[in-house]
């Protein structure tokens, strides 16, 4: 074991990538490390930091001796995995930029950490709250605690990264994981294979399901190939008019009381009281409804008070919400991002939805200037009802 503690950040290369030129970018220098692997680097180019000239111009003169440089290095290490071999990337500095896009196994580091930490010794969690406006946040507590200390909503929070106290002695004390796994431990190039072998074994375990089983319910799709396949299927369904499980909604919180309606593509287009996929397709006219068209076509919100467009227009793609099943897995498009929902969680949600009785109340069609007028009309149409909208009750 090494005498000094080193900060190691490692990622697991996808199993289908076996050639080095499939993993690292072209024109990157490789150096063989005997009995370990291959180290790749790129020559650093020392230069003055941009703020020297951007802010000071020529005021300070030349030859200040202030330089900056971004060191990059990645060590690719083959590790035996039964009868097969898996490749690890040990990343140094900005070395991740030497790897091709999409070569790392997603959530490898997260699985290692969840299988290796004491469940009641978490320190920090990065999460994304799904909804009309996905919100990314990092929560850090002053002392070790369980998942409940972070107020996680297991039905809509996507956990991206976890930091906690390790139960595995060779990983050191504090470990962090997302796609990559980070630990400060007494390992160096001489015994790094042992460290990587342990990490691979920990990633395969399902110990985390005893306390973190909800972690698998929702995960963001980040594979470019998977995203392309989902977008292609979305476009195919839109072009074919297969609009079941595809709908539209504003991606931001809006003031519905002031929402006169929505316009597609341009300011002078017809006004619609709500967003509808069929109306969007109709507005496209002779234009093919492709992915680029969806991302470059605007949705405008019009104010009832001023008849002006409210805020910045939204790309149509960001307003589309869809549920698409591919290869037996349910995927959800939410505010411009794709998420995969675990099969058992999908079944649980569907069963709960199907067990909910339909409301027998028949509501009038919405053909009103604003929400307040509609609420008053509903009250008049339903005997024994009372409009509570803006009818404030002062108490205490």
Structural description of this entry:
The chain is about 25% helix and about 30% strand. It has about 400 residues and is α+β, with helices and mostly antiparallel strands. A ten-stranded antiparallel sheet has the order 2-3-4-5-1-10-9-8-6-7. The longest helix has 17 residues, at about 225-240. The radius of gyration is 27 Å and the shape is globular. It starts with 5 loop residues before the first strand and ends in a 15-residue tail after the last helix. The model has no long low-confidence stretch (mean pLDDT about 85).
List the helices and strands and how they pair.
Elements: E1 6-12, H1 20-23, E2 29-33, E3 37-41, H2 50-56, E4 72-81, E5 84-93, H3 108-116, E6 117-129, E7 135-145, E8 157-166, E9 174-177, E10 181-185, H4 192-204, H5 209-212, E11 218-220, H6 224-240, E12 246-248, E13 259-264, E14 271-272, H7 277-284, H8 291-296, E15 298-303, E16 314-315, H9 316-319, E17 320-326, E18 329-334, E19 337-341, H10 343-354, H11 371-381
Antiparallel strand pairs: 1-5, 1-10, 2-3, 3-4, 4-5, 6-7, 6-8, 8-9, 9-10, 11-19, 12-17, 13-14, 13-15, 15-16, 17-18, 18-19
Helix pairs in contact: 3-4
